[in-house]
Amino acid sequence: MRAVLPIEAYLYNQLKAFRAGRRPHQDMRYMSRHMSEDEMKSLSAYYAQLPR
Ligand code: HEM
């Protein structure tokens, strides 16, 4: 099992919040509304490993 970075967990939870409408934002609700769990996990893992 690979360790999940805190930033990755944060991004994943934000995507879930946008999709559920718990974090109000029109563009992000639109972007996240059809994302599957796996897609949200993969996107979060990808953005989390980008250099900051
Ligand atoms: C697959 C594509 C995308 C992913 C995975 C994504 C992911 C995210 C995440 C995780 C956040 C929360 C960041 C945080 O809390 O620090 C966020 C915020 C935001 N995203 Fe996206 N995003 C995507 C595409 C877009 C697009 C296309 C737009 C604009 C049309 C956009 C506009 C924004 C804006 C304006 C915010 C800030 C929302 C706020 O102030 O609450 N994103 N995005």
Detailed description of the structure:
This protein has 52 residues and is an all-alpha fold. It has one domain (7-49). 65% of the residues lie in helices and 0% in strands. The protein has helices spanning 6-20, 26-32, 37-48. Helix 1 (6-20) packs across helix 2 (26-32) and helix 1 (6-20) crosses helix 3 (37-48). The mean pLDDT is 92. Bound molecules: protoporphyrin IX containing FE. The site of protoporphyrin IX containing FE has 8 residues, from helix 1 and helix 2.
Rg calculated over all Cα atoms: 11 Å
Care to count the β-strands? 0
Question: Please, how many domains?
Answer: 1
Helical amount? 55-70%
Q: How many helical stretches?
A: 3
Report the average pLDDT across residues.
92
Distance between the termini: 25 Å
* Classification by helices and strands: mainly alpha
Tell me the major beta sheet.
none
The molecules bound to the chains, other than polymers, are: protoporphyrin IX containing FE
- Low-pLDDT parts are none
Give descriptors for this structure:
52 residues, mainly alpha, 0% strand, binds protoporphyrin IX containing FE
Give a quick summary of the entry:
With 52 residues, the protein is mainly α. 65% of the residues lie in helices and 0% in strands. It contains 3 helices and no strands.
